[in-house]
């Protein structure tokens, strides 16, 4: 039984490392002026126990960073990108770490898995959009404000 728990723990940490890698690569695409979190700080989501708190910080700061970057680039995306899914993911992760009755914990764990995957996919979608924009216009691109001259 202990061996299965150890293997499960190792697999979980590996998944968190790949998740942190996605966050890191996304943040590397954001201009320094628009960052609200340093790319290297994304790795803290792979630290057990500390990540219970850090998930909330990453969600908030990644949302702000993406919001700033897309605003500067004049790319139309939803306001506060990734925030809704990220907060649900962070809260369900917090709840999975609270001792609750097994049936409640099972339901919360399933919800957490769904929202974890959803958040990861959303972050990856925005990373892809940002990467395509960076490849086309360059990392230092700032859209000019074009006002109507009437």
Helices and strands in order:
Elements: H1 2-28, H2 50-73, H3 83-96, H4 102-137
Helix pairs in contact: 1-4, 2-3, 3-4
Kindly report the average pLDDT value.
92
Distance between the termini: 75 Å
Protein structure class? mainly alpha
Strand content: under 5%
Which percent range fits the helix content?
55-70%
Order of helices and strands: HHHH
Low-confidence stretches: 146-150
Molecular shape? elongated
Task: Characterize the main sheet.
Answer: none
- By DSSP, the count of extended strands is 0
Q: List the total number of helices.
A: 4
Radius of gyration, taken over Cα atoms and rounded to an integer in Å? 18 Å
Structural summary, described in words:
The protein has 150 residues and is an all-alpha fold. The protein contains four helices and no strands. It has helices spanning 2-28, 50-73, 83-96, 102-137. Helix 1 (2-28) packs parallel to helix 4. 23% of the residues are buried.
Structure in a nutshell:
The chain contains 4 helices and no strands.
């Amino acid at each position: 039984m202990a061996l299965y728990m150890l293997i499960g723990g190792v697999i979980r940490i590996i998944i968190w490392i790949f998740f942190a890698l996605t966050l890191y690569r996304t943040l590397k695409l954001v201009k320094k002026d628009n960052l609200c979190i340093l790319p290297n700080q994304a790795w803290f989501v792979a630290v057990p126990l500390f990540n219970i708190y850090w998930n909330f910080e990453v969600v908030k700061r990644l949302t702000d960073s993406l919001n700033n970057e897309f605003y500067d680039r004049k790319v139309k995306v939803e306001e506060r990108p990734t925030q809704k899914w990220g907060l649900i993911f962070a809260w369900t992760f917090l709840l999975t770490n609270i001792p609750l009755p097994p049936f409640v914990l099972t339901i919360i764990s399933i919800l957490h898995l769904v929202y974890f995957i959803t958040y990861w996919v959303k972050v990856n979608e925005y990373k892809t959009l940002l990467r395509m924009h960076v490849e086309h216009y360059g990392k230092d691109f700032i859209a000019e404000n074009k006002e109507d001259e009437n």
